[in-house]
Amino acid sequence: MMKKYNIYLLLVLSISLAFTGCDGEEESEVLKNRKISGTAISVSGFGKVQGEPEDWDNIAESDLTILANELNMEVSAGAIEDESLVSSYEVVKVFNGGEEISVGTYDALPFTVSLTEIDEFLEGTSATVDDLKIGDLFTFTVKVHQTNGDVFYYQGDSFNLIVNCYADLSGTYTVTNSVCGEGSSGTIPSVTITETPDGSWQLETADGGLLQYCTSNTGLVNGGIISVICGEVSSSSSDTDFCPDYGIGCITGGTWDQETGVLELQLNDDFFGNGDYTATYVRQ
Q1: Pick from 121, 69, 68, 59: which is nearest to 95 by CA?
Q2: How far, rounded to the nearest angstrom, does the alpha carbon of residue 246 sit from its chain's CA centroid?
Q3: Gyration radius of the chain over CA positions
Q4: DSSP per-residue codes, 129-147
Q5: Smallest Cα–Cα separation from 226: which of 217, 237, 216?
Q6: Residue range 34-51: mean pLDDT, rounded
Q7: How confident is the model at residue 17 (pLDDT cuts 50, 70, 90)?
Q8: Does the pLDDT of residue 197 top 80, yes or no?
Q9: Span of the secretion signal (predicted)?
Q10: Distance separating alpha carbons of residues 205 and 194, to the nearest angstrom
Q11: How far apart are the C-alpha atoms of 70 and 258, rounded to whole Å?
Q12: Which helix (H) or strand (E) holds 276?
């Protein structure tokens, strides 16, 4: 018998913080002293560093033949707070958590960072092309320099490019899972997978349909992002929307078969007590 569950999620609709006294002077002080960067930014574009391991049995240590590398990072203005605070914008890169290296400085928004040669990715690091391995990470981050000397990092808009094998998961998929098969009502609608700018994969429904189609919570969509490294789903950089706070549909691993177009996810559900389960996505 298929089990149906109810989920009661605590939604914090609003939080009122009492900054004000009777005359409102305390609120004025709090707002006046808050730190602002000057302007918000929007980062778009695409990037990849892809290669073919010489030893597929030991890809983490194998030498690579680099097949593709490019970065097109477009930085534009979001909400403007106070542009007069900004002196310049700078893009910095970090390779495998090492030293911060400047890629370029820009006087105003918008601007584009374009890299087309692997030597440009490695410039300023101690690594060479022969040193690159699957799983190496290039992180590109924008920081703003203010006229008073303060510096702000836009960490949430970083480009994180993992050195990877070729993969293309984009498409529409049929989905089943080991908890309720094709869903408690007999069907799980098709799920779309799209590529993110930094080479990860966005799943409309990333828990195999568990929350929305194996329980009575039909209005709750558990989407998520996964990273696939040479056919293996990386659990360290993959997660679902309802995993961090509720333990629903947490991705623990999986595999991708480029030839057959089949994605197998290993997941865990703590909230409903299903424990470990699997989900299968088959490209149509």
Answers
A1: 121
A2: 19
A3: 23
A4: GGG--TT-EEEEEEEEEET
A5: 237
A6: 84
A7: very low
A8: yes
A9: 1-20
A10: 12
A11: 22
A12: strand 275-283
